[in-house]
Design brief:
Largest sheet: 10 strands, antiparallel
Bound molecules: zinc ion
Radius of gyration: 57 Å
CATH architecture of the largest domain: Distorted Sandwich
CATH topology of the largest domain: Glucose Permease (Domain IIA)
Structural class: alpha+beta
CATH superfamily of the largest domain: Glucose Permease (Domain IIA)
Number of domains: 4
Number of helices: 8
Oligomer: single chain
Helix content: 10-25%
C-alpha cells in the first residue's frame, strides 16, 4: 500500500509540474511518458532479452540468465568430462519458456552425440561399470549371484555390498565391455544360504540270541536285517562358494532299520546218547570209545567237522558200510580216510596215526579203518570227523545223533 501511495504522490506532483511547465518541457514529459508506457506494456506482454543455447549447432534451450548457462555447462561437464560445443546468443523473445541450470545440463548431455544416457553399476560406493543395456547387466548380476548355488539345494544369494544399477550419462568411451563388467562383478562378494536335503542309509544292528537248546556251533539268522533310511536337512552358509558355516536343521527317520536276529547254540552234546543211539541216518559212533568232543561244527573258526579227543591209537570205526575212496596223507589232514556210503554220502576220518584200509576196500559199519593220532595240522591226539553230502561238508551232529 505504501508503494502505491508513493506512486500516486509522484503522479500527482508530476501532473502539477506539467501544468506549470513550458511547451518544450511538456513535449519532453509526454514523450518520456509514452516511452515509459511502451516499455511497461512490452514487459507486461512478455517481451524479454533471453539467451539461446546451441550444442554442436543445434538449438537445445533458452535460458533467462548467463549464470544459468554457466552452471548448466559446468554440471554437464562435471558429469561426463567432455561435451559438445556449446554456444550462447542473446535473443529477444516473447513469453519464452526458459530452462533452469539442471534442465540445461541434461539437454546439453542429450544433444551431445558422444554422450550415452545409460546406467552406472556400483558395488557399494564404488562405480564398476557404465552400461547401456540394463537387462544385460542384470543378467550378469544374477549370474554372479547364482554361480555359488549348490545343485539340489534351495539357495538364496545376496551381495555383501549393495550392487546398484542407476541411470547415468557418460561418454561412449567410458562404456564398459562385457568381460570387464564380469571381472568387476566377480569382485563383489556373495553370501549364499543353501538348504540341502539328503537321504542316507542307516545300517541295521545284529542281535545275538544264545540258546542252550541248540548245540554249540549252531548259527542261524532268524530275522534278516533291513537297512533303514533317514533324511537330514542342513543349512550351509557359503562365502563366495566356500562353506563357512554348516548347521543341521533336522534328521528324520523315513524307514526304521530292522535288526538282524541270529540264534547261536550253546548246548553241549550228551555223550552217552551220542555213543549209544544210532542216528536217523543209520550212522554209528566213529570210535571204539566215547572220547570228548573238543570242537563242534563252525566253532567260530569255520571248522567243517567235529573233533573228538581220544588217546592216540584208539580204533576208528566206519560209521556205515561203504567203499574206501581215499586213504592217504595231506599236510593239513595228516593221515586220513574217505568212505563212500552211496547216494552222495561220504565220511572223512583225519589226523590218524595210521590208516588200516586202502582205496577200493569194501568196509562194513563198525569195521576198524584207522588208528587215531595227531598227524597233520593238529594240536593234540583226536579224530577229526566230517560228513560230506554231494561234495559239500555239513554239520555231522545230526548224523551222529548229538
Ligand atoms: Zn577237526
Amino acid at each position: 500500500m505504501e508503494g502505491l501511495i508513493i506512486i500516486q504522490d509522484a503522479v500527482i506532483s508530476f501532473i502539477e509540474r506539467v501544468k506549470t511547465a513550458n511547451r518544450i518541457q511538456k513535449l519532453v514529459a509526454y514523450g518520456v511518458t509514452v516511452i515509459l508506457l511502451m516499455v511497461i506494456s512490452f514487459i507486461a506482454s512478455g517481451v524479454r532479452i533471453t539467451y539461446n543455447i546451441t550444442v554442436d549447432g543445434n538449438t537445445v534451450a533458452t535460458v533467462a540468465k548467463t549464470s544459468v548457462f554457466k552452471q548448466g555447462v559446468k554440471t554437464a561437464n562435471d558429469l561426463v568430462g567432455e561435451i559438445g560445443e556449446v554456444e550462447i546468443k542473446p535473443v529477444i523473445t516473447v513469453n519464452a519458456d526458459t530452462a533452469d541450470a539442471e534442465q540445461l545440463s541434461r539437454l546439453i548431455l542429450e544433444n551431445t552425440a558422444s554422450v550415452i544416457n545409460g546406467f552406472e553399476v556400483k558395488v557399494g560406493d564404488e562405480r564398476v561399470a557404465y552400461v547401456s543395456d540394463k537387462a544385460a547387466v542384470e543378467a550378469e548380476i544374477n549370474a554372479r549371484l547364482s554361480s555359488f548355488n549348490i545343485e539340489g539345494a534351495e539357495c538364496v544369494s545376496e551381495f555383501v555390498k549393495k550392487v546398484s544399477v542407476t541411470n547415468a550419462y557418460f561418454n561412449k568411451s567410458q562404456l564398459t565391455d562385457t568381460e570387464t563388467l564380469k571381472a568387476n562383478l566377480a569382485k563383489a562378494d556373495v553370501v549364499t544360504t543353501a538348504r540341502k536335503t539328503t537321504k542316507y542309509t542307516v545300517p541295521f544292528d545284529t542281535v545275538t540270541k544264545k540258546t542252550s537248546s541248540k548245540l554249540a556251533g549252531y548259527v542261524k539268522v532268524t530275522t534278516s536285517g533291513v537297512k533303514g533310511t533317514n533324511q537330514k536337512v542342513e543349512e550351509l552358509t557359503l562365502y563366495n562358494g566356500e562353506i563357512i558355516n554348516q548347521n543341521q536343521l533336522s534328521d528324520e527317520v523315513l524307514v526304521y532299520p530292522v535288526n538282524e536276529v541270529v540264534v547261536i547254540g550253546t548246548g553241549k552234546a550228551s555223550y552217552t546218547s551220542a555213543v549209544q543211539n544210532a542216528s536217523a541216518q543209520g550212522f554209528r559212533w566213529p570210535l571204539a570209545v566215547k572220547g570228548t568232543i573238543t570242537s563242534y561244527w563252525g566253532d567260530g573258526r569255520n571248522h567243517q567237522g567235529i573233533d573228538v579227543g581220544v588217546p592216540s591209537g584208539t580204533s576208528i570205526l566206519a560209521v556205515k558200510g561203504g567203499t574206501v575212496v581215499e586213504a592217504g596223507y595231506k599236510s593239513d589232514y595228516g593221515y586220513y580216510v574217505i568212505l563212500d556210503h552211496g547216494n552222495g554220502v561220504k565220511t572223512r576220518y583225519a589226523h590218524n596215526k595210521a590208516n588200516i584200509v586202502s582205496a577200493g576196500d569194501r568196509v562194513s559199519a563198525g569195521q576198524v579203518i584207522a588208528l587215531s593220532g595227531n598227524t597233520g595240522r593238529s594240536t593234540g591226539p583226536h579224530l577229526h570227523f566230517e560228513v560230506i553230502i554231494n561234495g559239500q561238508r555239513v554239520n555231522p551232529a545230526a548224523y551222529l545223533g548229538i
